[in-house]
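Table S2 (text version). Query chain:
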Amino acid sequence: LTATARREDYNAVPLVGGGFTPESQLDNWSYEGAVRPYYEFQPGYQAYLRGAFNRRDYDHAQGDGVPSLSSSGYRFDVGGRIDLTGITYIDAYIGYLNQNYDASSFGTVGGFDFGANVVWNATQLTSVSFKTSRSVEDVNTAIFAGTGITNSPGYLETAAAINVDHELLRNLLLNGNIGYVNDDYQNITRTDDYYSAGAGVKYLLIRNLYLGGTYTFQRLRSNGEGEATPYDRNIIMFRISTQL
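Corresponding structure-token output:
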């Protein structure tokens, strides 16, 4: 059994040319409770059921006739976990998820639910991981379409990523990753596709101090009502950090 509660508060955003635009319509409390009974056939082999219910309470509506994004949701899944002597680990599930908004004009966002977390230790120095999942996410504002404002409450997000870690030396670690995210909006025809790829290096000066560097390429492509402006982004980061 698990239970979580989360609070989010948003600051006003400065505008180009002066002034601020409030974001307090996004302030919210969210709660979720989940139960996950499982049966272990033998060590390392497990089947499970999972049911989760959530509630999202926003402090107030956006205004201009746009209702509050408050909603209730659930997800039910059946899955299994396999641990092959620590070399390969698989956790995968399928099911259904649904988020029902209090405002009837928003309707519901839901669909086929699935996810997986796969870890393969190819060698003692190299590990490969794959993750995929689905979730319902709320929009941060009303979506502007060509004919005016279309009230889309949220979108069904599907994400997948592959990550490779390699220990070149005991104190030199390499990393590479690729990812894809698809956001399918409710009530409008808009879909957003995010693509990413990156690489990184971590050099341990001592056990608790390391230098690091990463490069990430991100691309957004959007189409449909109120589509976002497409962009490509290159992010380079250098860091010095401590760890316990």
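Notes on Table S2: The first strand starts at residue 2 and ends at 8. The CA atoms of residues 132 and 160 lie 4 Å apart.
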